[in-house]
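User
New here, help please:
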Amino acid sequence: MRFETLKKLNAARRARQAAIAVTDISDGKIQVILEGEDVSGPLGEEIAKAFRSGKAGTVDVEGRSLFLNVHLPPPRIVVIGAVHISQALARLAPVAGYDLTIIDPRTAFATEERFEGVELIADWPEDVLKDRPLDAYTALAALTHDPKIDDFPLSEALKAGCFYVGALGSRKTHAKRVERLKEMGRTDNEIGRIAAPIGLDIGAASPAEIALATLAQIVQAFRRRELVAAG
């Protein structure tokens, strides 16, 4: 692989930006395509499929055989709230290939004993997200029921274009949340992306079932996500 190709792929990896190395099998030439670059026609359709699936493979496009090597940033889940649902979600997420971080300023909940082996940050989301910003390859799940803790990261997740944004709470609770997020500057279209009540409707009752429904909804959102628009 040429140095310029490696350089572009490494830069994309550092920026948590998706890229595909397109190799023309007939002559070995490689082109790196970043998510958001404008690629039209049949190749553009194949590129979009590959970005969503994350799978490498050979495709035939207009008489050419091309190998698409997909490089996606590792998808991650940021959970707001060290609650029982978070404990179950922390066990399930790695099985599906997701890194997971839990943020909760309430030190009575955010303890090593309750979340052994989990990345746990006992601090306010406002402070944590300054140094660890959300991005398009992040799912955010707000689970505290406390507006003082949940609202800021929800607003930031919508602003950052996180591929999934979910919040625990009833429809009545969410209606009040909507008004607060509007006051924070979020639009109706942005707020409409929030999954609330959180999780796929599987009749979940226990914390473990809610965690399972939430993870399933996150996986669904990731595989069906809108790709970054061409700039």
